[in-house]
Amino acid sequence: MADGLEPLFAGLKILDFTRALAGPTCTRMFAEMGADVIKVESAPDGELARRMSKIRNERSLYYIQQNLGKQSFCVNLRDPRGVELVKELIPHMDVVVENFKPGRLASMGLGYDVLKELKEDIILCSISAMGQSGPLAEKPGYDYIAQAYAGVTSMIGDPNDAPSIPLLGIGDASTGVHGAFAVLAAIYHRDRTGRGQHLDVALLDAYYHCHEVNVHQYSGSYGEMKPTRGGRHMSYVCPAGVFRANGGDIMIMGFLHHFKDLCAAMGRPELATQEGWTTDQERLANLDEVIELVETWLSTFPSHEDAISKMEEFGVPVAPILTVEETINHPHLRHRGTVRTITDRIAGEFDIPGMPIKYSDYPEDLELEAATLGEHNGQIVTDLLHHSEEELSQLRADGILNEGEN
Amino acid sequence: MANPSNALFSGLRILDLTRAVAGPTCTRMFSELGAEVIKIEAFPDGDLVRHVSKIRNERSLYFVQHNIGKKSFCVDVRNPKGMQLVKDLVPHVDVVVQNFKPGVMANMGLGYDDLMELKEDIILCSISSLGQSGQLAKKPGYDMIAQSYAGVTSMVGDPDEAPCFPQLAIGDVSTGVMGAFSVLAALYHRDRTGEGQHLDVSILDTYYNSHEASIHQYSGSNGEIEPNRTGRHMNYLAPAGVFKANGGYITIMSFLHHWKDLCAAMNRPELAEDERLGTDEGRLENLDEVIEIIETWLQSFPDRDSAMDKLDEFGVPAGPVLTIAETVAHPHLRERGTVRTINDRIAGEFDIPGLPPKFSKFPDLPTLDAPTLGEHNAEIVTDLLGRSDEELAALREAGIIKEKNV
Questions:
Q1: Is the separation of the CB atoms in B26 and B125 below 8 Å?
Q2: DSSP 8-state class, residue A401
Q3: Which residue among A205, A232, A330 places its CB closest to the CB of B354?
Q4: Are B181 and A351 inside 8 Å of each other by CB?
Q5: Which residue in chain A has the smallest CA separation from B129?
Q6: CB atoms closer than 10 angstroms to residue B326
């Protein structure tokens, strides 16, 4: 960070009701760049993520990864006094982000209309699986369910078998980023008009957004093209997909103008102009033959890495299909900070993904921590909301507030 | 095509040097909300996607979907007069977005330092596959290449076979949205400090951001947990995955507290407390048996949707694995605008994904067109850059700018 430069989002105040992944991803884009994010966790046990995935020294690494830089306010929202405390917080906030089931926030007495009465220009970002309204809005939502409804699951795996699911929260993460975009767009708008807004961000929509061809191909061909999964090879350019080699698999993008380079690498330059091989469409029609040709050639190398080097020599877009383990030690990913090592005061050192945007004015991460449960209860209630120490003690004694060690 | 004056991003002007999907997604998040986006198209044939996927009446539906609301300036930047026109545009714009291979912009004399000389507070967003620096930065980049390097491809498909990949541009689109967020963050920063910035956004980092568990699980267990693909079922909760029904598939997320609801739906309440199958750990250990119980039950229904109705009745989190054809006709997706019908003046009517997210102050997006090639050449050269009609004619004659009605 340039000397004397405040963090990018210094002074921006966000009240964060979110849990698990999509919501916390959204607020994390702000917390990691210096916004004041108050994470509301329900008393007594706090966010479910504190008990998920790998736990070390009773501290959830999942929780840490998703909540760096956020304050923890652990309060009982089933008690009117707890809700009252939250209402006292609203006038201090710029933005509220939530990912409850649609209707839940309103039923707690904290719907958009109520928030607007407390702060006229409040920005509320509601993140959900299927959206705030519509026939499916009431469904319990998870990433893979929205993925199924978005037609995305149908596009993954063997065409002759049941589809597969990617074992990572692609939809949740992308939805969180869509939410962060929406929040900033609303701030942009408010800076110029003084007005707040309610934002409706859904996993379903974020996933559907990714159909760069499928929808227009189906509708544009009046249903003649029926996009579906194609296993490990793309369906509209060729060759493009996963090829097997010795000791590993390789991703090869050898379509359009890349095909001639692949042919040169294979020592078969004549193929690029041979009948039946010159266009992507022709090669798609003979996909099995193309795969056999390439994989036979790949098998002549002692290892897939040698094959990759050969193709790189000829400028063919290729990549080794790295395992998670291999990514963590890859020099490029380390150099960029795509993967980074953090030190948590309780759980110690471990690796997580880096901040996915590199800001030229902010080349270093801020030194941030993930909060223990209710770590900031005292500070919020006495400093920010100006209650007395006695009131604070009473709230704790009555179970309206709770603090934990991890 | 006049820009709407009361849209969210009215008054914001962006110079767009992107093509294909990732970059155009970023700039489209602004053009669809009313920003003026000037798209510089490669001379003489324009964005390469004008020639791929479904073409109708010589109009690329791919191009239309990704370039709604943008202006097209088709200019030969290899000609110094053409390059000068682009440089003359820079002082008029707030933001420049590009997705050339790292180094290309600098070689053209349009690197960040060059742009800052033309406009001191310029914001430059550089989108790439693998990042602006580092050993992989010079590689030709595509979604799937970054996906492989990010360890994401390794997490998709059958563990006993080569991996497969989702047949849609999840990486490209998510990265475009990440870029859009970064642009807004830079605008936020500039509004408060007067400073511009250079943003480095990559498909690699965006994909890596989606590993919600794998990285910390691997490193936090000192390599004991080796994250890998698992086909169609999650490996840390159960049941959670894709199940076969008659004539289709259903994604069921029925772990933790949801298990009892699935047992009730299956009329097997005793399974909820079963010694072996009553916990997630137990179900993971006996996964084959769990899958068989569920799939046998699902296949007792005549079809997928009648099984879905039963699951919905009992509040079990589940969703049908819809095909693309089914998504386009689904009432919820239509009602929300997750899928929308657009009417292009050349290609006619067809469906594309909607624009997530939904803004309460802007419930209806302005009706905008995707440009024909070079459609706004005249407007840009004479209105914006103040050149004369004679100069415009000379540029056309010299083949420095070009128009085509596609």
A1: yes
A2: B
A3: A205
A4: no
A5: A317
A6: 15
pLDDT of residue B383: 92
Domain ranges of chain A: 13-209+333-397, 240-323
User: What are the pLDDT digits (tens) for A107-146?
Assistant: 999 999 999 999 999 999 999 999 998 888 887 778 999 9
Give the pLDDT score at B48.
Answer: 86
At B47, is the secondary structure helix, strand, or coil?
coil
Which of B25, B136, B181 is nearest residue A29 as measured by Cβ atoms? B181
Same domain, B317 and B357: no
**Pair of tokens at residue B289:** 């048996």
* A335 burial level (CB within 10 Å; 0-12, 13-18, 19+): middle
Please name the residues in contact with B281: beta carbons below 8 A apart, sequence gap of 6 or more.
none
Give B245 to chain A, closest Cα distance, Å.
Answer: 10
Nearest CB neighbour to A322, from listed B56, B154, B218: B154
Looking at the DSSP bridge assignments, the partners of residue B277 are none
Judging contacts by C-beta atoms under 8 Å, the chain B residues touching residue A167 are: 155-156, 214, 227-230, 234-235
**Percent of chain B residues topping a pLDDT of 90:** 72
B195 touches chain A (CB under 8 A): yes
Q: Which CATH class is domain A13-209+333-397?
A: alpha beta
The residue of chain B nearest to residue A61, with distances taken between CA atoms, is: B216
Nearest-angstrom CA–CA distance, B383 and B157: 54
Please report whether residue B218 resides in a domain.
no
Long-range contacts for B266-271 (Cβ within 8 Å, ≥24 apart)? B266/B293, B266/B294, B266/B297, B268/B293
Partners of residue B335 in chain A, C-beta under 8 Å: 133-135
State whether B52 and A332 contact (CB < 8 Å): no
Q: What is the ipTM of this complex?
A: 0.90
Relative to beta strand B358-359, strand A123-128 is unpaired
In a domain, B231, yes or no: no
Report H helices in A243-286.
Answer: 259-265, 280-285
CATH number, domain of B142, equals: 3.40.50.10540
Tell me: do B36 and B103 sit in the same domain: yes
The CATH code of the domain at A240-323 is 3.30.1540.10
If asked whether residues B353 and B283 sit together in one domain, one would say no
Catalytic residue list contains B121: no
Contact B151/A326, CB-based, under 8 Å?
Answer: yes
Q: Is the pLDDT of residue B131 over 70?
A: yes
CA pseudo-torsion sign A85, A90, A93, A98: positive
Determine the residue among B360, B362, B364 to mutate to test chain A binding: the one whose Cβ has the most chain A Cβ atoms within 10 Å: B360
Chain A contact set for B133 (CB, 8 A)? 335-336
What pLDDT, in 10s, does the model give residues B62-72? Answer: 999 999 999 99
Neighbouring C-beta atoms of residue A74, cutoff 10 Å: 26
Assess whether the previous peptide bond of A44 is cis (omega < 30° from 0). Answer: yes
Are B278 and B376 members of one domain? no
What's the pLDDT at A285?
94
Mean pLDDT of B259-287: 95
Expressed as residue numbers, the domain containing B50 is: 13-209+337-397
In a domain, B380, yes or no: yes
Chain A residues whose CB is inside 8 A of the B326 CB are 151
Contacts of B173 in chain A (CB under 8 A): 174, 209-210, 212
Distance between A14 CA and the closest CA of chain B, angstroms: 15
Residue B168 and residue B33 in one domain: yes
CA A29/CA A183 separation, integer angstroms: 11
The last residue of one of the domains, among B272, B299, B325, is B325
**B47, B94, B143, B172: the active-site residue:** B172
- If one counts the domains in chain B, the total is 2
Do B272 and B142 share a domain, yes or no? Answer: no
Q: What is the mean pLDDT of residues B185-213?
A: 94
- Residue A399, number of CB atoms within 10 A of its CB: 12
